[in-house]
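thread: overnight batch results

M.L. [08:02]
morning all. the overnight job finished for the chain we discussed friday. pasting input first so we're all looking at the same thing
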Amino acid sequence: MKTVVLVGKVREICQLLKQYGKQFTYVSEWVDYVEASKKHANHQQRSQNFTLRNRR
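M.L. [08:03]
and the structure it wrote out:
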């Protein structure tokens, strides 16, 4: 079981919950989306680093 910790001001958290509530039905869908986004961002960063190293 995964744990979700929401950090921020109450109004910010409420705003995000309303925003993501329109996009996702379950919290697990939201968590999967965030994890996939992080993996995608890390992959892009590694690709950029590899390109920069090869240009030198």
